[in-house]
């Protein structure tokens, strides 16, 4: 078997690897957290640990809540059911003035109005509730609020009460006592009122419902009156406007002499303008035609107008031209046949000359006629243009008059329509003021209830008890969460990530001398068994190491480090040649606990060169050898850091199989840090429910950095019964040192028989 890495069981059955070689300074691999199940188990243990305090709190709260509940006055509730009309089917259209569009909005609005201040004020004034002792603010209340105010001396000064102040105070109280419950998928609303008197509750509920309906009726009547007044004023002004517009229209007709515009007069003017325009166009075409002919005439310079088309088209000119052509043809024929000198030829020549003179005269006559026609056409065109301009002016004037008249007529029509509309609305409003549709009606009247609705005494007490239990449980869990001390072996392994060598039970009512020998005096106790467990873990930590040096230290004084060193040394002395060295040179306790003579030589003297026989002592009734501090040095660190001390310690390790050193706490001085690299193993003592885990972790890290090998943690001064009750992890049952068949010591919920001790034999 390889002795350098042996699996052993410590703490709560957690299996760790113990490294025994001196050169290996980090010795353990720890299991991880158990997760959510572990958290729930911790919560449960926290509740079990303080179950009596939680139960006491619950009992106290139960009694107080019961007294308070039975001292409270009963409160009764009465409910009236109101139907809110849909808002459709208004009797008269004037209600459009104050109706609300949308059924859903109308329903929600009426619910808010039902619990409005105006309705409550009307109900309070109608019932004069300030005269009711329950609502009268002038009567002093005996409630807790007034009690504490009177104790604090901050009671308000006397107040002047008038009717308005009384109404305000009562309305504020009533507002906190009413509740509205709209019935789903309907137009019903349940109005509930709570009061100490059932008759008062029913009366107030019915009055609020009736005042809600009356308030709506009054509001509608008021609106109708306001609208009617407005419409009457508006009708009067509209009547005046209509009269003025009609008078203006009549005056305009008389002034303009208009009988009918837009009828025959307008048609006649249009026809005149159309005829004048047609004549003008024809005259202008005639004038252009004559102007062209006139231009051709003026272009003739030699008096020959035969090229003028207007002259050529003249019938006389055409006839004369035909005669001339015939005479010239005959003259040509006769001249050929008779000769130019023939009298017939000469006579015919004279006729031709006469015809030419007649043709020239005819052409000139046509030209003169053309010039006269052109002048006449130009004059006619100008006359027609002037006539058309006058017709157009007349039509424009007529259109203006028609427009002005149309404006006046529209004013008359508009004013008449407005007047007739407002007159109709005024008549409707007057009728609506007499006939109004209610916003709602009462479906079920409120009746007095014989059973109070609160306080629900049983429910109140049960709720208080449940809340107190929850508060107590939360407080217990919070206290444990805030508590960072090491609770026990399992907690030490989880927080410190180191194995637990043993859990040393708490021993009460013993002095220091007896406590240092408790392992010898009561060898069958739980304490002795725990010391053996620690011894076994230390022995198994390095089976191949012939001589071991064990350093025992702690965080702060008062953790039982010296007592543990003595009893553990006694246990080792039963099996091995063991020496206990008291190295606490500042506050030596081991020598007095072992009842050694004062002033005895010790480790300081041995380091200084004194013989070993003069520096060690056998403890009474024990094979244990002990070396006290000896002469106290002025600076213990100089002694510990010296080479002579190292040589002395090595010499002692050669003479003894087991050397146990009781050193000072790590938090206060650095002696243990100096000794850490010189020893084989370190056992760290932690006092249960006292030492903070962060402080322990810090000092463990310091020891490791100094070169020490931490073997494990010894949880000291553990109350096993309280640990079993609080945490469910350490319980001793049917324990008997004489036989192990029925004797087991429980750690962390698992039982580990101490078989390694060989049945309790001194030669374990």
UniProtKB/TrEMBL annotation:
Name the domain of life this protein comes from: Bacteria
According to the entry, every stretch annotated as the CobQ/CobB/MinD/ParA nucleotide binding domain falls at 551-717
Q: Where is the Tyrosine-protein kinase G-rich domain?
A: 408-477
UniProt keywords, alphabetically: ATP-binding, Cell membrane, Membrane, Nucleotide-binding, Transferase, Transmembrane, Transmembrane helix
For this protein, the Enzyme Commission number is 2.7.10.2
* Compartmental location: Cell membrane
Q: Which organism is it from?
A: Pseudaquabacterium rugosum
Name it: Polysaccharide biosynthesis tyrosine autokinase
Give every Polysaccharide chain length determinant N-terminal domain span.
38-127
The UniProt entry lists the main location of this chain as membrane
Top EC group? transferase
Q: Which PANTHER family match?
A: FERRIC ENTEROBACTIN TRANSPORT PROTEIN FEPE, TYROSINE-PROTEIN KINASE
- Extract the coiled-coil ranges from the record: none
The opening ranks of the lineage are: Bacteria, Pseudomonadati, Pseudomonadota, Betaproteobacteria, Burkholderiales
Q: Which NCBIfam families match?
A: eps_fam
Topology in the membrane? Answer: Multi-pass membrane protein
- Mind telling me which residue stretches traverse the membrane in this protein? 52-71
One Gene Ontology term of the molecular function aspect? non-membrane spanning protein tyrosine kinase activity
